[in-house]
Write a structure and sequence with these properties.
The structure is a single chain. The protein is an alpha+beta fold. The protein has 2 domains: about 170 residues, Ribosomal Protein S5, domain 2 (2-Layer Sandwich); about 130 residues, GHMP kinase, C-terminal domain (Alpha-Beta Plaits). The chain has 9 helices and 13 strands. Strands 1, 2, 3, 4, 5, 6, 7, 8 and 13 form a 9-stranded mixed β-sheet that branches. Strand 4 and strand 5 form a beta hairpin. It is globular and about 55 Å long. It starts with a strand and ends with a strand. Bound molecules: (R)-mevalonate. (R)-mevalonate (MEV) binds next to helix 5. Its EC number is 2.7.1.36. GO terms for molecular function: ATP binding; magnesium ion binding; mevalonate kinase activity. It catalyses: (R)-mevalonate + ATP = (R)-5-phosphomevalonate + ADP + H(+). Its main location: cytoplasm.
Length: about 300
């Protein structure tokens, strides 16, 4: 019998996290780590042993409300029948701001539509996956499911997404190190907003600097000036440190990457924990990897995914 598979990328925030909450631009990139979903004929089941996820429509077992929302939406819009068995695997670290839940929703939507014989239009995949994101997150920006659906590098500013025109070179990579420190994005964001209110005059200038920095970085990416992009990432890290979201552990990872020759290194996402990213030329990747391993961490080396969700 027929089986269809789809994959969708995770993402990193390259620049502008936190500042984006107050309307400044941020840059995100889809990266080559994927959630992959395969669908064959079955009895209305979506599962992932790896992610501990199960929807069994025949017995009303649902431990993931977001994916249930995807199935409901597809049934309502396209008359999706309960004749599928979807299995999900993912390479994207969970709970680290890399858009794992969005990539799962995007790839599942794409695969279920394909299985049902409906051409999986990207706009539809985006809309349906955003419904899932609304279940997972209180006020989702849409950054995660947008990057996972469309791929590439995008600027997000006040609800609007624009693709950054780039031919990202094969010899500039992104190294990701997960600190393994868990934190709640919501409470980190709340702390930052409190600091903003307490030091608003100083903070408004830091936020303006972040905005300038992102605009400069867009040009650097468009013109292929990755040495400059690296420096701008370092400056961005300094600004994130100044708003209170760094930590001793994150600093040690950032400096390990810089010492090993990264063009730039910074916190990515909410901070306090989560991931650090480095912009690294191919020739320096082995030394950066070695340094991170010496800290007891397992680095991931990725490139930009330009395509977004697709058949696998
Ligand atoms: C978290 O990945 C990104 C933040 O800017 C929060 C947000 O934009 O919702 C810290």
């Amino acid at each position: 019998s027929r089986m269809v598979c789809s994959l969708a990328p995770g993402k990193v925030i390259l620049l502008g996290e936190h500042f984006v909450v107050k309307g400044m631009p941020a840059i995100g990139a889809a990266v080559t780590l994927y959630a992959r979903v395969c669908v064959s004929r079955g009895q209305g089941r979506v599962e992932s042993r790896q992610l501990g996820l199960l929807l069994d429509l025949s017995s009303n077992t649902v431990n993931d409300k977001g994916l249930y929302r995807v199935v409901e939406e597809l049934a309502g819009r396209f008359g999706l029948k309960r004749d599928f068995h979807a299995t999900i695997d993912s390479e994207i670290p969970i709970s680290s701001g890399m858009g794992s839940s969005a990539a799962v929703a995007v790839s599942t939507t794409h695969a279920l539509l394909s299985f049902a014989g409906v051409e999986p239009d990207k706009k539809v995949v985006w809309e349906v996956s955003f419904e899932a994101e609304k279940v997972y997150h209180v006020r989702p920006s849409g950054v995660d499911n947008t990057l996972s659906t469309y791929g590439g590098v995008m600027v997000y500013e006040r609800g609007v997404f624009n693709r950054v025109k780039t031919r990202w070179p094969d010899d500039v990579l992104i190294v990701i190190a997960d600190s393994g420190v868990k934190r709640s994005t919501g409470s980190v964001v709340a702390d930052v907003l409190n600091r903003y209110d307490k030091y608003s005059k100083v903070m408004s200038r830091i936020y303006d600097a972040a905005s300038e920095l992102v605009r400069d970085a867009i040009k650097s990416i468009e013109t292929g000036d990755f040495a400059r992009l690296g420096e701008l990432m370092n400056i961005n890290h300094g600004l994130l440190s100044s708003i209170g979201v760094s930590s001793r552990v994150l600093e040690s990872i950032v400096w390990a990457m810089r010492d090993a020759g990264a063009l730039g290194a910074k916190i990515s996402g909410a901070g306090r924990g989560g991931i650090v990213i480095g912009l690294v030329e191919t020739s320096k990747v082995p030394s950066v990897i070695e340094k991170i391993k010496s800290l007891g961490l397992a680095p991931l080396v990725v490139q930009i995914d330009d395509e977004g969700v697709r058949r696998a």
